[in-house]
Design brief:
This is FAD/NAD(P)-binding domain-containing protein. This protein is α/β, with parallel strands linked by helices. About 25% of the residues lie in helices and about 25% in strands. β23 (about 365-370) and β24 form a beta hairpin.
């Protein structure tokens, strides 16, 4: 331990990112933090929590009233238990971070010019997604406009091409087939099998068989250029369609980019990031040069598949334990920097099992769990766990908000 603490009356804990992982951590800390000693600030680029698990169904149609059930505002209700009356929500995007030396507090600079000081900083800024999941940030109204525009595109389209056969493309295809069963939908995927090599070939082939059974055309080992997929909208498809890299001609009237995500880390300097833009961390989820700064979720540089379940169920318990240990150890020794790697009371992350549940509309799906020999589970279980309701019933317990 080193560096004396500042004389601030309360320790300021700032969490950037109110996604599924961020809210899971906020709720985990809310039962243990001492409000007489600590304050908490939640910063998010959007004024609302977007439940990404249900977002693909949300942008296809108004089924299940998801616009009300899955898009919850942040507010006083977000802060519960010991955080009640002791938390602040700030709507804004972080543009840069001024780090303190040796574990001392620093500052966040937001896009609106606001500056927020912190003693403990937690980064859970998640991923950026291509259209159609690139929801606006400025207001709920803009988010609703985006959703309505996507619904109109899908409704108007006569032939839809999804560029990318990962989980987003696969689940979107299933949602489209639920609402527009006779509308042609094609998935084009650069790899020879759907998804990626994290998963066994047997599972990847089973996924393809299930999606093709819905009437979806699957083109693997082929691609169109990224610029085509990014720029083309319903009114901009080239006359005569596209010629793929393998020489096939396809003629959709709507092209939707559904390839993978990228980490939201542009506010950090390159020396803190890997070549892929992910945040370098210790097994304690701390930044190596900044022990009072933690990062978790999609943004971390860790060899594993990214996803909300990883952040909420596997990262959050260890991050929460380490933050509480950090606060306790720093307070007891009256220092601002704690070496959690050397502490027996800290939780070290060594990874978690790979698992994926892919919905195929409301009544189908398939999943894989990397336990024992690798278990593939069928549609009835995925329907029960995810596909039918998309876990909508869990959202109020995460956000503290109950839609009327």
């Amino acid at each position: 331990m080193s560096s004396k603490r500042t004389d601030s009356p309360k320790t300021s804990i700032v969490l950037v990112g109110g996604g599924i992982g961020g809210l899971a951590l906020l709720n985990a800390l809310s039962t243990s933090i001492d409000p007489e000693k600590h304050t908490v600030v939640l910063v998010d680029a959007r004024p609302t929590h977007m439940h990404l698990i249900s977002s693909l169904r949300l942008i296809v149609s108004d089924a299940d009233e998801l616009l009300t059930k899955a898009v919850h505002p942040y507010g006083d209700h977000t802060f519960r238990n010991k955080f009640a009356g002791n938390g602040t929500f700030v709507h804004g995007s972080v543009t840069s971070v001024k780090f303190g030396d040796g574990g001392k507090g620093g500052e966040l600079i937001l896009n609106n010019g606001e500056i927020i000081g912190y003693d403990i900083l937690i980064l859970a800024t998640g991923s950026s997604w291509p259209r159609p999941l690139g929801f606006p940030t400025e207001s709920r109204g803009a988010i609703e406009d985006h959703i309505m525009a996507r619904r109109a595109e899908f409704s108007k389209a006569k032939d839809i091409l999804l560029v990318g056969g990962g989980s987003v493309g696969l689940e979107l295809a299933g949602e489209l087939k639920d609402i527009f069963p006779s509308k042609p939908v094609t998935i084009i995927h650069r790899e020879q099998l759907l998804l990626n090599a994290t998963y066994p070939d047997k599972f990847r082939l089973a996924v393809q068989k299930q999606v093709e059974a819905r009437g979806v055309t699957v083109l693997t080992g082929d691609a169109i250029t990224a610029s085509d997929a990014s720029d083309v909208s319903t009114s901009q498809v080239p006359e005569g369609g596209f010629v793929t890299e393998q020489g096939k001609t396809i003629n959709p009237d709507l092209v939707v980019p559904t390839w993978g995500n990228s980490p939201n880390t542009s506010y950090l300097s390159p020396d803190l990031l890997s070549s892929t833009g992910h945040v370098k961390i210790l097994p304690t989820f701390q930044l190596p040069a900044h022990p009072n700064v933690f990062a978790f979720g999609d943004i971390i540089d860790w060899k594993e598949q990214k996803g909300a379940a990883k952040a909420a169920f596997f990262h959050t318990p260890k991050v929460a334990k380490n933050i509480l240990s950090y606060l306790k150890l720093a307070e007891s020794a009256n220092v601002s920097s704690v070496d959690l790697m050397a502490s027996k009371k800290s939780a070290k992350y060594s990874g978690s099992m790979e698992m994926i549940m892919i919905t195929n509309g409301k009544a189908r799906g398939i999943g894989y769990f990397d336990i024992l020999w690798g278990i593939i589970v069928g549609g009835w279980l995925i329907t029960l766990l995810k596909a039918k309701t998309l876990m909508i019933g869990r959202i109020p317990s995460q956000t503290g908000f109950t839609p009327k």
